[in-house]
Amino acid sequence: MTALTPHQKQFVLGPMPVSVRPGWVSIRLAERLVLSHCPKLRVAPLQSLDGKDYWLLGLAVLADMPMTTIADRFRLKNSNEIEDWTGFWAGKWALISASNCWQDASGCLGIYYRDAAGAFWISSSPALLSDHLPDTPRLARIPWQVTHRMGIDWIPAPFTTREHVYKVLPQRTITPGTGAMRPISFAAASGNAPMNDEAPVNDDALASAFKTALINWAQEDFRERLVGLTAGLDTRTILAAASAANLDVEACTINYSDADRRDIALPPRLAASVGIPHRRITHPDPALDPSEIQARAAAIAEHMDDSTFHPVSASVADGLEGFMHDSGRTIAGGHVLGLARCYNWKRFARAGFAETLPSADQLLDAFFTRAPEPPHVWKPEPRPFWKEAMQLWINSLSDPVPLKLDWRDRFQLEQRVGAWNSGLERMSDLMDGTYFYPGNCLWIFHLLLQDPPEKRLVGSAQKRVIQLLEPRLSKFPVNAASTGVKSKMRALLGPVVTGKLKSLAKKLKGR
């Protein structure tokens, strides 16, 4: 099994070079502005029509022009056109120039910053901004108490793992050297507002955007392309687009320890229905040696700055995602698309919140876990940090961002996706392969958010897109409830008791 190297595919932007590991590359962008990066991070130099230099980090493709690369179009754009144009880029990426740093639609790559005694630094890693800057003191780690699936199970943006290191929220750009931030512009989303029943989403445009993103992903230089697949709606939308684009892909399902039985049983049938091969990814056999697992877990903890709250970290340590230790392999996933389905609206409604924005304390208290989970088992500790983070986020809602979102959707985009998902996705940088998110695009977000809430709650727009692109996939239920004995017991006992019983069963089995 390939060893894991902390801070792989990371970068630092600041007044002087930074070398985290041997072989790191440094590029001087301007006076007292140097881009330093891991050699395994995808970095492409670009130049606009008027001669301005840019660097594209990560993987971005166009969602509006099939069979066209960003590099091909970039040289035809003037510098004053670039920012608005990035709203049509899909993927996990950052675009850097001497005067700006832009990020993907949800901040999935993760842009963090620190002002160290007048020296301003930007990075994709909070740990690098604390522990690896030249002649700069380390910062204290914030003792967040975060537990998977209890309350807010992520570090709330704009806070991070370290004091005085902050995250740039989605739909903002930051200026290197000064840290000045502002909302980006994206004219195509101006006047964005939910439509009524008589004015449906432009389904053709949405279907075309998904399909175009997949077509352009296929033009990138990879040897093998996979589509991650579960029983849910988001991954099925990506599979439908890949099938409609007639791509040479293979579907795959990762057998995580906490995977629902539906997410294991249904994907092979979905893939077979459209003639796409399917593989199930399991733990290595034989299992890794315990000392190797321990070394991998230590590398993950260093890379993530100890923010390993999600069980996927244990799966990576165990070697489950070892199939992605291959630079020629790329996998497309359905991440970020929960934004379209009014995620967390029901939770806020149960707490008595609707259009009116709650206070920071009320917002935190809304995440005390409720039935069917055990009541009141989560507390936001340390409370002062949680409250300050939430208040900073509430204050940011006055920023005139291009997507005109309800505060509950802003919470989903800027907290659940922009903080939880981007933190989790940092772990994927430990792999040589490339993870791609076709739906992570402002243009696609804009189109998905046009349905009224009652339609969004059931994923109506995505279902219509699937019907347009690959109607054979519409015949299968989405996350159909299981009637098996195990499912009934899980519903009766709740996830915490069920988890304890599973752990006990494993111990007894090992005796």
Notes on the protein architecture:
This protein is an alpha+beta fold. It folds into four domains: 178 residues, Aminohydrolase, N-terminal nucleophile (Ntn) domain (Glutamine Phosphoribosylpyrophosphate, subunit 1, domain 1, 4-Layer Sandwich), CATH 3.60.20; 201 residues, Rossmann fold, CATH 3.40.50.620; 58 residues, no CATH class; 28 residues. Helix content is 33%, strand content 16%. Strands 2-3-1-9-8-10 form a six-stranded antiparallel β-sheet. A five-stranded parallel β-sheet has the order 15-14-13-16-17, with helices on one face. α17 packs across α18.
Structural class: alpha+beta
Can you list the strand order of the major beta sheet?
A: 2-3-1-9-8-10
Number of strands: 17
User: What sort of overall outline do the alpha carbons produce when their principal axes are compared?
Assistant: globular
CATH architecture of the largest domain: 3-Layer(aba) Sandwich
What's the tally of helices? 18
At the fourth level of CATH, the homologous superfamily of the largest domain is: HUPs
The description of the largest β-sheet is:
6 strands, antiparallel
**Which radius of gyration do the C-alpha atoms yield?**
22 Å
In the CATH scheme, the class of the largest domain would be: Alpha Beta
Give the domain tally.
4
Helix content: 25-40%
Uncertain runs? 192-199, 487-497, 505-511
Strand content: 15-25%
**Which topology of the largest domain does CATH recognise?**
Rossmann fold
